[in-house]
Amino acid sequence: MYDWLTEHKIPLGLWLRDFVDLLTTHGQGFFDFVSLVLGALIGGFTAALLWVPPLLLIALFGLAAWLVHRSVGLVVFIVGALLLVTNLGYWTATMETLSLVICATLVCVVVGVPIGIAAAHRPWLYTAIRPILDLMQTIPTFVYLIPTLVLFGLGAVPGLISTVIFSIPAPIRLTHLGISSVPPALYEAGKAFGATKTQLLFKVELPYALPTIMAGITQCIMLSLSMVVIAALVGADGLGKPVVRALNSVNIAMGFEAGLAIVVLAIVLDRVCKRPERRSRKG
Amino acid sequence: MAAVEFRNIDIVFGADQKGALRLIDEGRSREEILSATGAVLGAAGVSLAIERGEICVLMGLSGSGKSTILRAINRLNEVARGEVLVEHKGSKVDVARCDEGTLRDLRMHTVSMVFQQFGLLPWRTVRDNVGFGLELRGDLSAAERNRIVDEKLAMVGLTNWSEKYTNELSGGMQQRVGLARAFATDADILLMDEPFSALDPLIRDKLQDELLDLQRRIQKTIVFVSHDLDEALKLGNKIAIMEGGRIVQAGTAEDILLRPANAYVAEFVKHMNPLNVLRGTAVMRPAASLAREGDAVMLDKSGRVKVKVDSEGRPLSIDLDGRAGLLAKADGEAGVIDDALAHDADCIVAPVDLRLKAAIELKRHTDLPILLVDNLGRLAGLCDDDEIYRGLLRRLDG
């Protein structure tokens, strides 16, 4: 009865495939270059983190937490949790994951914050990118895992790219929110004293929006961390790998331990990144 | 030379500027322009000159266009037509048309601004807020900047608060920071957009007094926006009353109280207490209109009370029906007089800017006629019962 409707299928999927094919044939050089740079970035970070003796690094984490939050309980928790992870034998994997998260967050900030600023200054731009951001956050991850795999090859880089696609909307949205909620009075005060556009951005808009942007970055870190298992599917090293392996071999023990390590890392990152209570801001 | 001069400016918010300007020329109202073009009339045909060292208050209800034209002075609002001439580094600059570089220079050196909601940066300390304008200018060393900031903080009495964040301060203190920030760039022209409206009445009154006090020392040109007539009358050397984007009357406080230009202004001033505003000049019978006989000026119709004046016109003595009387001097706009002196005197000599309130008190106290003299001591006019009553009834022409 609905034959007329199904008779001629619109080849949407095929079009996209052809598009990706087109990219691979004509843009291979570019993608290889990106792959090389990002690969070196992650590799460098991982090497650096693994070069430091674990105990020293754990002590450094504890110190950082103390400097930011001045809370003994938090320091004890962080040091204890990281020691537990080391004891379970997941130190290397944890550092690989941390490196992936740091790199993904870096890329997200470097790309996302300027996009957020630009969108806040140009309402039409935000209207244009909003559906794209929605799409990036709702489309199942596996769907864009396939083309990234084709374009960037197996390994950490497609994992990183997928992670960035998934988590970059957070800093973009929150930067946009922060910048566009700068009170007109502050903007006018800047202008009235002769601020240039650049001065307005760096002396009025960004300082005002900073707490919101930081919230976006914290969110971005958490979203990146939630992608580690997916990233492992395309060959990225880290805590995702034992989880995937445990799933394939129905290994409850390994799955639980690796999962616990992810949770520990998530809590540590969340607590360290969360900014201490800021002075209330009125008027 | 006027420090700021509006020459026939129109300000329109919205896309259809041309259409709106055409309707302005036809004399249409704001509502008609809005429904026909979708553009909002900000100001129409505004011309006003503000002299150097003067406090000019732009007065009106909200939406009357007072802030709109204030913001045209440093081009926070664009002018659709007309000129806004501002004295900048010795020459006149048309702010409405000047290039970006000149505009920035003018904003950094000549015109500074105080905002209703203070417009302070909450992540900066008081010190860094006050130094904001200087920092944007970028032409001073940090030490020099700190010196200026300290000086301005002392001026507004916030020396001990320099390292606090602005949200730790009360509203009145925050606005003092706003004032210090505006003073810091040493701009000659100060724009104040309802600076005291967000403060409670007692603090407002105090800051008004402080502003007047500061103004006596620094002599800036101040353009002040207010919706409060009391404030306007207290601060303004000149007051411009606006309605629907147009200036309906501009003049001194006395002009506005005694000769309201239309029903709108009359309604505004109806509930004002004229005693605080009116001065001798506004109610006196001018010396020129008094009958003269040689060097004697007649104070009453029958010519029985005469004042002898010297060649410059300074009163020398008084003659009451042939008897020589005594002149007693009252000082200042408050009319301070020595009690014993007043007891023996037959006539009081007071400065011409004597407040009407002080004149009434003198009359009640002594029941003597008051002669007003200008600042060179020359007879300017007579202020007796009749003149005072007329002033109170606000009828000068009767």
From TrEMBL, chain A:
InterPro entries cross-referenced by the UniProt entry: ABC_transptr_choline_permease, MetI-like, MetI-like_sf
Superkingdom, taxonomy of origin: Bacteria
Bilayer-crossing regions: 33-60, 72-92, 98-120, 141-168, 208-234, 246-269
Residues in ABC transmembrane type-1 domain copies: 94-273
Pfam families assigned: BPD_transp_1 (PF00528)
Localization annotation: Cell membrane
Keyword Transmembrane attached: yes
Primary location recorded for the protein, binned into one broad class: membrane
Keyword Transmembrane: yes
Membrane topology, record value: Multi-pass membrane protein
Matches recorded under PANTHER family: GLYCINE BETAINE/PROLINE BETAINE TRANSPORT SYSTEM PERMEASE PROTEIN PROW, GLYCINE BETAINE_PROLINE BETAINE TRANSPORT SYSTEM PERMEASE PROTEIN PROW
Stored NCBIfam families: ABC_choXWV_perm
UniProt protein name: Choline ABC transporter permease subunit
Organism: Ancylobacter koreensis
Encoding gene per record: choW
TrEMBL record, chain B:
Gene3D superfamilies xrefs: P-loop containing nucleotide triphosphate hydrolases
Keyword Acyltransferase on entry: no
Domain ABC transporter, residue spans: 21-269
UniProt xrefs under SUPFAM superfamilies: P-loop containing nucleoside triphosphate hydrolases
Key words, A-Z: ATP-binding, Nucleotide-binding
Keyword Metal-binding among record annotations: no
Matches recorded under InterPro entries: AAA+_ATPase, ABC_osmolyte_uptake_ATP-bind, ABC_transporter-like_ATP-bd, ABC_transporter-like_CS, ABC_trnsptr_Choline_ATP-bd, P-loop_NTPase
GO molecular function, a single term: ATP binding
Family statement drawn from the similarity comment of this UniProt entry: Belongs to the ABC transporter superfamily.
Full protein name: Choline ABC transporter ATP-binding protein
Source species of the chain: Ancylobacter koreensis
